[in-house]
Amino acid sequence: MNSEYLYKTPFGNLRKDKCELPNGVVIDDYYVNEYSDWVNAIVVTKDNKIVLVKQYRHAGKDSFLEIPAGKIEANESFEQGILREVKEETGFSSKKRPIKLGEFMVNPATQTNKVITYLIVDAYKEFEQELDNTEDIETFLIDFNEMGDLLRKNQIKSQLFTANAYFMAKDFLIENNK
Length: 178
Fold this sequence. Notes:
Elements: E1 3-8, E2 13-20, E3 26-34, E4 38-45, E5 49-57, E6 62-66, E7 69-71, H1 78-90, E8 92-93, E9 99-105, E10 114-125, E11 138-143, H2 144-152, H3 160-175
Parallel strand pairs: 4-10
Antiparallel strand pairs: 1-2, 2-3, 4-7, 5-6, 5-11, 8-10, 9-10
């Protein structure tokens, strides 16, 4: 069907489509946000702590504790992207390869992007942070076993992707007796 870009930016694009649904209904003005895919990871240290980053989020008008995450750069695999993001945001590394937990559309009703979620185990601090001038990130370590309660009881300010990744990682670790 027909598509028209209303604007394009380095952050994302807004497209207006003429959309025909599977039942034949046509929506003349269907708005789609085009965003880049991104990666995130639950990073667990050798002593069972989760590595979190705290940063200000303008749309949320507050600072949030989140797992390391970011967009993929040109010619970079998802795995390379998450290792780079973890290193830049936290300085943590691991000798073990990241475990892919899943790949999910963020909001397929209106967005084109997906998030690829990883688990990184046996992490240790190896580097200093390498932050962009727009990043002001503090690193925090929270006991892995306490994180679920903190999320369920809303005792930390976080976001959906951190909670989802945590519970996926917890299930994976239980199923694999780690």
